[in-house]
Amino acid sequence: MDNISPEQVRTEVKKYWNAFSSKSKERFAGLFAPGALVFVADTRRNEPARLMVERRAREYFVPQATSKAELGDIEVQIAGPEVAIATYGYRFYGIRVINGVLYDVDVPFSRATQIFHRDETGQLRIVHEHLSSATAALPKKLDKTV
Questions:
Q1: What is the three-class DSSP state of 61?
Q2: Structural contact between residues 87 and 72, judged by C-beta atoms closer than 8 angstroms
Q3: SS3 letters for 13-49?
Q4: Which of 23, 65, 98, 114 is at 20 to 30 A from 4, Cα to Cα?
Q5: Going by C-beta distance under 8 Å and a sequence separation of 6 or more, which residues neighbour residue 96?
């Protein structure tokens, strides 16, 4: 099996955001290794990726929600033949549903670090993810409910 290339990792990062914005829970969940841990900007601790996927499905993968990310340059470090690290800045915005209430979310200065590992099937999977924001971005409650 060939070593991981930076372009393969960039492709996986783009798949991640495409799966997120297209509301595909199955494709989104499939990007993570079974034991993956994530640390996202709107939580105070790390958690299993499978838990984050369920929360994102409730909040962003419903008909009333929207999401979009504008990615900056994706830097890739190859850490070995089976491991690579992607780091990049991005802007995230969308409409999120929390307990039936719609919220406008705009996070202009976000950063991501995702560690990829090639699994036994040859697929790159995220084993660790850290998403953060340079400034506190509080969702704004909209007057609509679902």
A1: coil
A2: no
A3: HHHHHHHHHCCCHHHHHCCEEEEEEEECCCCCCCEEH
A4: 23
A5: 59, 60, 65, 67, 102, 103, 105, 139
pTM for this predicted structure = 0.93
Q: What is the pLDDT of residue 41?
A: 76
Question: Tokens 């007057």 appear where?
Answer: 143
**Contact between residue 78 and residue 3 where contact means Cβ atoms under 8 Å apart:** yes
Q: Which domains does the chain have, with CATH numbers?
A: 6-145 (3.10.450.50)
pLDDT in tens, 11-61: 999 999 999 999 999 999 999 999 999 998 777 789 999 999 999 999 999
Average pLDDT, the chain: 94
Residue 71's DSSP bridge partners are: 90
Give me 75's structure tokens: 């830097």
